[in-house]
Design a protein that fits this description.
Strand order of the largest sheet: 2-1-6-5-4-3
Domain SnoaL-like: 44-168
Oligomer: single chain
Number of helices: 3
Protein name: DUF4440 domain-containing protein
Shape: elongated
Organism: Mesoflavibacter zeaxanthinifaciens subsp. sabulilitoris
CATH topology: Nuclear Transport Factor 2, Chain: A
Order of helices and strands: HHEEHEEEE
Largest sheet: 6 strands, mixed
InterPro entries: NTF2-like_dom_sf (IPR032710), SnoaL-like (IPR037401)
Strand content: 35-45%
Distance between the termini: 104 Å
CATH architecture: Roll
């Protein structure tokens, strides 16, 4: 009779260990990851500020690292394509005609929902166009109210813009 009791006790021991191990696994998978959203918002703000500063400095230098290669850009009701398309066919050449580009009354709202962040920017901007003697144009100033929305994604620990949409309306001049 001793062998069956031994087998029964051994079986109970194995089942008990297995249940304990499953319980440990369950506890491990239920741990919640705590994210410092304040820090994430600050990181997103740095990206957006870098882009705004580049535009105010009339350059695209360093901006390609802020966007993914396949980031989509929309401006004033037009699909510009990727960020590279936008720089090559629109913004890059346009910056060459500007004497200055300044933002004012700038406000930004950032929402983080990992791995994404969403921004909304509201601002006024002033562009001073260079005079062009060859075309017979004088220096002139354009003032507009703008709004922009961007979607960023955290990729390999870095925030990157994956979508940008801007629009504006000219102020009374």
């Amino acid at each position: 009779m001793k062998p069956p009791i031994f087998v029964l006790l051994f079986t109970i021991l194995i089942v008990s260990c297995k249940e304990s191990k499953q319980q440990d696994t369950t506890i491990e998978t239920q741990k919640e990851v705590v994210v410092d959203t304040t820090n994430e918002k600050e990181e997103v703000l740095k990206i957006m500020k870098s882009y705004k500063n580049a535009i105010q400095n009339l350059t695209t230098e360093g901006t390609f690292q802020l966007f993914t290669q396949d980031a989509t850009v929309f401006e004033q009701g037009k699909v510009e394509g990727t960020y590279k398309d936008y720089i090559d066919g629109h913004l890059g050449p346009e910056l060459g005609h500007f004497k200055s580009f300044t933002f004012s009354d700038y406000q930004i709202d950032v929402n983080v929902s990992l791995p994404y962040a969403y921004t909304t920017e509201n601002y006024l901007y002033t562009i001073v166009l260079k005079a062009d003697e060859a075309k017979g144009t004088k220096e002139r100033t354009i003032e507009s109210k703008g709004v922009a929305t961007s979607i960023l994604k955290k990729i390999d620990g870095d925030w990157k813009i994956i979508h940008s949409h801007t629009s504006f309306k000219k102020l009374n001049q």
